[in-house]
Amino acid sequence: MNDKQDLQTVAVNYGVASNKEFGAIIPPLYLSSTYEMEEFGKKGAYDYGRSGNPNRSLLAEALAKLEGGARSVITSSGMAAVDLVLALLEPGDMVVAPHDCYGGTYRLLSARAAKKHIDVTFINFYEDHFESRLPKSIKLFLIETPTNPLLRLIDIAKISGLAKRYGAWLAVDNTFLSPALQRPLSFGADFAIHSTTKLINGHSDVVGGAVICADAAHHEKLLWWANCTGVTGSPFDSYLTLRGLRTLHVRANQQQATASFLAGQISEKNLAKIYYPGLTSHADHALMLRQQQGPGFMLSFEMAGGISAVKKFLKKLHIIKLAQSLGGTESLICHPATMTHAAMPEAVRHQAGITDGLLRLSVGLEAPQDLLQDLLAGFSE
User: Fold this and answer.
1) Is-catalytic flag, 356?
2) Residue 198 annotated in active site
3) Which of 19, 154, 156, 164 is the Cys-Cys partner for 24 at CB 3.0 to 4.6 Å?
4) Which long-range contacts (CB under 8 A, 24 or more apart) does 320-325 make?
């Protein structure tokens, strides 16, 4: 493959026409759980489905290409991908994460720390002097940018430099943007993490995850742990995710354009706050222009009337559905305080700025004007 190809071409064509037996354009689905050995003591490229599968390999290779990494590991979920990176740590190793991270990540890190598998410090990365509050010893910075659900941005290159000074690794959850809109490894990150359930697959019919490594040596260790614990992705899920990947750039660009349109239209409506990096009023707008290929397809807003206003608003929606997850072709809205961040203690949630009036919108592929009318109906008295 030509290394100078545009990433959209890579996403569309990776693995196409690679079948030599019958000349199939689309890579076949290999559901076999086991593979015949060439002879006693000599196995082929694959021997057992947990350890390796052709569909999983193709997806891993494609994502590594798109993220600019050495190798990648495909997991059974996004949380399995986050936990897989933690397998590189030893008891007592310190992990630093944002205080407003995804609720599932907060739950995992807190639970691992409670078991004394790791130590964890949650930091407000948006304070001017956050570095003075960092622990003396750090092994892993685990960040997400934009953050879920407040869409705050963290300067990846800055944290990468900080990690190097500590002798630490930097892992970036890139789920909200995908490699179509952001490539953390190009800014110095050691790992890019994805819930491929979201924008990468894009059709709300697969649960999966991935870890892309800048260093092939890290990949070997992660692959060993993935096989050891059995968190590798299934053949069918890998097949479907690669199929979804083919349209990633087209979907991401359209969904981003619609999100930008909606953010501009509702920014002056009856809202307490709106969170969208594409707005010039967003505190991290300049960083977005440097670090991302656009503001993304997610936007969040806070209802002025709190939980009662949220309930009234949601009842008036017809096109946009109240549901978990994001990144699909359909527009979804969620209430983080009772859904994605329900595992986060209320006091911690409020300290992070995740209020009862906050709603998170994943913009889909519906006609922009139809989505706007749906939102305006929700805002109407």
Assistant:
1) no
2) yes
3) 19
4) 320/361, 320/371, 320/374, 320/375, 325/197, 325/198, 325/204, 325/362
Residue with tokens 């929606």: 317
User: Is 50 noted as a catalytic residue in this protein?
Assistant: yes
Which residue of the set 100, 119, 173, 284 is catalytic?
A: 173
Active-site hit among 30, 35, 102, 106: 102
Can you read off the two tokens belonging to residue 7? 């990433």
Residue range 297-302: average pLDDT?
A: 97
Please tell me which residue in 71, 139, 198, 246 is annotated as part of the active site: 198
How many residues are recorded in the chain? 381
Structure tokens at 43: 């196995």
Residues 57, 88: Cα–Cα separation, whole Å: 22
Of the pLDDT bands very low, low, confident and very high (cuts 50, 70, 90), residue 45 is very high
Q: Is 173 annotated as catalytic?
A: yes
Q: Name residue 188's amino acid.
A: G
Residues 6+ apart with CB under 8 A from 127: 133
For every residue of 231-254, DSSP letters joined together read -BPPHHHHHHHHHHHTTHHHHHHH
Each residue's pLDDT tens digit, 99-117: 999 999 999 999 999 999 9
Of the listed 43, 50, 221, 269, which one is catalytic?
50
Percent above pLDDT 70 for the chain: 98
d(Cα 114, Cα 373) in Å, to the nearest integer? 47
Q: In whole angstroms, give the CA distance from residue 194 to residue 174.
A: 6
Compute the mean pLDDT over every residue in the chain, rounded to the nearest whole number: 96
Alpha-carbon span 306 to 311, nearest angstrom: 9
Quickly tell me which residue has 């979201």 as its tokens. 198
